[in-house]
Amino acid sequence: MSLRHGARVLAAALLFLLRPGAGQAAPKPAEDVSKKPAVIAPGMNQVAPKDSYLHQLLGNLSINAPSDTMGSKEYKAATGLFEAGLFDSAAGSYQRFAMHFPRNLLLNDAIERVLLIRENREPGDEPLKLYAHTMALRAAGRSDSAAAVARLGLERFPKTRLRYHWQFLLADLAREGGHHEDAIRLALVVADSTSKSRLTPYALKLAGDETVAMGGDPAQALRYYQAILERYPASPLAPPVRAQVMEIRKKLQL
Question: How confident is the model over 91-116, as pLDDT tens digits?
Answer without folding.
Answer: 999 999 999 998 898 998 999 999 99
